[in-house]
Structure formats: structure tokens, C-alpha cells
Amino acid sequence: MLINKVSDQIKRSKYISRDLSWLRFNYRVLDQARDTNKSLFDRLKFMAITSSNLDEFFMIRVGSLYNYLDYGKERTDYSGLRELPFRKKLLDYAHRFVNDQYLTFNNELKPLFAKSGFDILKVSELTEIEQKKVDSFFKNTIFPLLTPMVFDNYHGFPLLMNQLLTFGVVTRTSDEGKPQDRVTFVQIPQNLGRFYEINRKDKIIFVPIEEIIRLKIKKLFRNVEIVSVNLFRITRNGDFTLEESDDLEADFVQEIKSKLKTRKKGRVVRLEVERNPSQYMMRLLKERWTIDNANVFTINSLIDLKGLWQIVNHRHFRDKGFKQPSSVMPHSLPSDGVDMFEYLKDHDVLLHHPYNSMEPVVSLLERAAEDPLVLGIKQTIYRLADQSRVTAALLKAAENGKHVSVLFEVKARFDEERNLREGERLEKAGCFVIYGISKYKTHTKMMMIIRKEGEKVTRYVHIGSGNYNEQTARLYTDVSLLTTNEVYAHDVSEFFNVITGHSRPNEYKYLMTSPKNMRHQLIELIRNEARNAKKGLKSGIVIKINSLEDKEVIDEFYKASKAGVPVKLIVRGICCLRPGREELSENISVKSIVGEYLEHARLYYFHNNGEPKVYGGSADVMVRSFDRRIEALFLITNEELRMEAINILYYNLLDNQNSYIMREDGTYIKKRAGANEEVVDVHKIFYNKACSEPQLVELV
């Protein structure tokens, strides 16, 4: 009865649970690992991504739920469920996902290893010579790094690190003739790598590090009886919502550094353990961490599938199934040899990554660093590549005496330490560095280069949806604009003054920003479509985003649907709106595109009675985007570029190879091309469309 009651409550709600919607998204990623049309290495890549996604989900979303449970705070999910019944529903669904994840890995992927040039083996499956190599590796490299940490009456419970593989070794001693069990913990250092590699003539053998340690664990327990050796891994609560901090007087950088330390000590929200663990150890761990069976995930294979990246990225397999990075220039940029400073004086450029290379943006920045006419550079940075060319260019610009001001967002999740480090490098070089704005997370992506050209100063502006990261620009789909248009330049200058100072402009002409006005302005655009529909005028909305969660905007979509507005939503991940519900959202459709590239672009189209308004930028339709983040959407005013953006949406709507259609109950079905239907794969078609002239198309 309780199960039926919970299910009925979820069905009655006019919203979909954010967290359950996210788990369904990870199923769509898992679907890529099941796709037999992909190479094994692509499938392993997606399997590793599902594992990484799930780690972050437990740290942040399950961690957030436990912030309510542990401190007795009330919380009602979008599904209408309170904390405890929702916890049960969520963890039950997570168990189901993990079971399906490992069924895929064990039954569909592992059988393909041997004929693909590699295998994952235990030490006992190696040749005698190979076992000697393993012995030497353990003796010289692994053994010196291992530190047994006993827990007993004389030793406190050790701090076990988040997401490290750990052995819980139960030993037995006799004190005064009475046998006594105790647990010693041995954590595997993360800098050892996931596998020990052995080259054979016909293949590469990957030996899990834990299997080597398991075989040699007795060397850490001389003259002690070992009762059981149990491998496990914990995930701790990593949710701390710094952007909601009201302590404006605190040293913000030091606050970030201290919060990073708490991530290592956060409460345990998940315990992954191999089959048949010691019941003595399990009782101890459950009691110590205040968890129960719902938090325990028994793994019948390799714990932590993120380790598969070592195989996917191996030098011998790099060319197996991976598309080379694009060097294609957009239609609006005629060649890659053009002088960008001269070209941008008369032309705007819309870039669609990865189908268009990010090279024009990075090269422009690098040239600006050396150009004697450039006076200054302003930039927001959220995530950077390793050995970033962007950082190198900014350092060079500072060395050359240019004014460089950079806002580093040190709350970029899991990149906090990197951004602090890079920011400190720039500070030492003489750059003006701001480490975020205490109450808000700066998520917008923009850059401005100020150049003196004779008696005139020209401002070169770049603004988009993607990070200034040359590596992810090859894997994420994003849109961005390069322009010297004075209206954009004025808006962006004003925006930089807002985020670096105390300026409060009344309005922007081409920008829509948060946290101040974005929600209200988007709602007004939706309402305008509803008004037009009620007047019998043509109307329509097409939006492509990562996540849709804000209730106020969702309610406006429902009202627009009732007014007769066709609403087509392309939402990669979380979607809390119910499409196609009778008398609520009959005119709303939702699709998700998941495939070779991570769909990261945000585009907003409003029909506006035949005079379309199209925006691109950094913001999703989420509470955090509107209330707790600094975001910007830019209006695409150039007619040809607007047509390019509309074409992007058009082909996303046509896609029938990477698309999943969302149903009213929140589930998804894979879209397939019909028997007489043209195959449309957006992750392939845009390579052919990148240089072609955009066509005039109808979206609604």
C-alpha cells in the first residue's frame, strides 16, 4: 500500500522530481555504452562517464538531501514527497541503475575485451614471468606507499578519504585467551593509477591495483591471523552551497579553502563494497557512519568504473573510434588566415563548437597579448584546460604591460583548487584578479579586448555558452559570438563593471542577465507568445538547454500551452516539466539529445509574430541560474547569424539518431528514423553544414 501511495503521489504532481529526472538522464548515458554501433572504446568511455556522473550525484544531490535529514529540516521534493519517503524512492532507483550498469559492463562489454587488443586480468591469470614483474612492482612501488590504520580500543577510527578504494582487513588475536576481532584499513593511494599495465605481443593486460595488493596483503600483517579482506569505497557529502553565504566580510578565498577540506570529512552517503563482505566489518561501518542497507551498494565486478579512462586514453587505443578535433571555420568567417582584428570591425561571427574550432577565440586572445595596440583584456573564467593557452596568454599580456582583469570563479564545482592556483599565478604576474562574488557564482562566459586604433578605441567582445577550455571545446557543443558591435561592447563593459565593482545599470539593450532580471524577462517573452496565440497570431517557442527546473518558468510554459502556443524543448539532462499532460501541457514536447558530444549550448527562440528573438548564452532554466548565479544571455541581432542559430535548433529538432522523447510520466523512449524517413544525426550533420550558407527554415 505504501509503495502505491508513493507512486500515486508522484503521478499526481505536475512537476517531475529533479533527482529522479537526473537518474533517468544517466540511463540515457548508459544507453550509449550499450550501443553496438559504437566502438568498444567509445562504449567504455560512456561507461566511465556514468560512474563519474553517479559519484557527483551522490556527493551533491544525495548529500544535499542528507543536509535536511541530518539537521531535521523539512524538504518537499517536486514529486510531492517528504524527506524520508523520497530518500527511499531515490536510493531504490539508484540501486536499480547500478545493477543495470554492471550488467552492461559484465555481460556486454567484458566479453569484447580480448578481441579488442586488451584484457583485465587478476594476478593468478598472468604468466610466471608477468607475475614476477608484478612482485617487483609491489615491492618497489606499492608496498612503501601503503599505511595500515587499525581501529581498536587504543586507536581511534581513522579518517577514510572520499572515493578512494580501501581494504577493510579483519584480523583476530587472542587476548587473555579470548579471541578478539578488529579492523585495519588500508587505503590505496590515488597516484598509483587504476591498473598495472603489462605488454604482451598481441595485447595489453591491465591488472587492477587492488588485486595486486589483495594478493600481497599479508606482508602488512606479519604473524597475525587474517579473517577476511574486504574491498570497499565510500562517497561523502560534498554539498556546500557557498553562493548562499551571507558572510560578506569573510576572506572569501580562505573560506573556499576551508570548505574544500570539509569535503574530505563530509558524512558518508554511499558505501560500495564487494560481494560477501565481513558482517563484523559491515556492522561497524554502518554504525560508525549512520547508514543502512539503502546506502550500501554491493558490486559484482570492478569497483569505480572511472578507472576505465586509463584504458580509453591509452596511447595504443587513442585512434579507435574517436573523431579528430574540428578545424572547420564557420560560414560567417571565410578563412582561418583572416586578420581577426580587421575582420571583426565589419563582421560578427557565430561559432558552433565543436563543429567550428575554438582556435579563432584562443588565437585572438594570444595575439592580443602581444599586440602593442591592445590596452587591456577583461575576462570571466569558470573552467580551464590543463596547461591552458588562455592562462598563458593572460600572463603574457600582463608581462607586456597590458591591463588584465580576470574574474576567476572559485566555486566552479570540483575545479575550485585549479582556479585558485591559476588565479594566484595571474596575481603574481600583475593581473587584477577577482575570486568570484561571495553571494553568487559567476557562470557567464565573456571576454573583452580593448584596442586603440588611431584616435578610436575598439572593443572586441566574445560571449558564449562554453568555458574557455580548449580541451572540452572539442567534446562539448556550444555557441558563442565574436563582435565589435558597439551596443554589445557597451553592455559587456557595463556588465564587467557590475561584477568587478558596484555599478547597477538600469538595463542592457542586448543582454539579459541574472540574478536581477533574467527570470522576469524570459517569463515576459513567454507571455508575449501566449498573448499572440490568444489573438490568433502565429506563435511558438523553441529552447535548447541543459536543465529545466525553475517552477515559475515551468508554470508559464503550462499557461502558454493552454493558450495554444507550440512549445518545443530540447533538454539534455534534468527536466522537471511534464510534457503532453491533458489540460496542462498538451502543446509542449520535450526531447533529450545524448550522443557523441555533450550538448552544452543554450539557445532560446521566440517566434514574436514573425520577427524572431533568439538568445544564446550561459544560463539554464534553473533556480540557481536565476537567483544564485551571475549569468548572461545575448540577443542575436545580425540577421544571418540569427538564421544560423535557428538552423542549429532546426536540425536538433530533426535529429532521429541521438534523441530521446520524454513522455508525460517522466520516462524517455529512443527516437528512431522511420522506414521512409531521412536519417538525421546532429553530431555528424553539422560538420557538413558548418561552412554552408544557412537556409531559411520554420521552427514552429
Give a verbal description of the structure.
The protein is of the alpha/beta class and 700 residues long. The chain folds into four domains: 1-111, Methane Monooxygenase Hydroxylase, Chain G, domain 1; 121-240 and 249-291, polyphosphate kinase like; 340-509, Endonuclease, Chain A (2-Layer Sandwich), CATH 3.30.870; 512-691, Endonuclease, Chain A (2-Layer Sandwich), CATH 3.30.870.10. 36% of the residues lie in helices and 22% in strands. The strands form four sheets. Strands 14, 18, 19, 20, 21, 23, 24, 25, 26 and 27 form a ten-stranded mixed β-sheet that branches. Strands 10, 11, 12, 13, 15, 16, 17 and 22 form an eight-stranded mixed β-sheet that branches. The chain has a six-stranded mixed β-sheet with strand order 2-4-3-7-8-9, with helices on both faces. Helix 2 runs antiparallel to helix 3 (40-70). The longest helix is centred in the N-terminal third of the chain and has 31 residues, at 40-70. It is globular, with a radius of gyration of 27 Å. Residues 130-311 form the Polyphosphate kinase middle domain. One of its GO terms (biological process) is polyphosphate biosynthetic process.
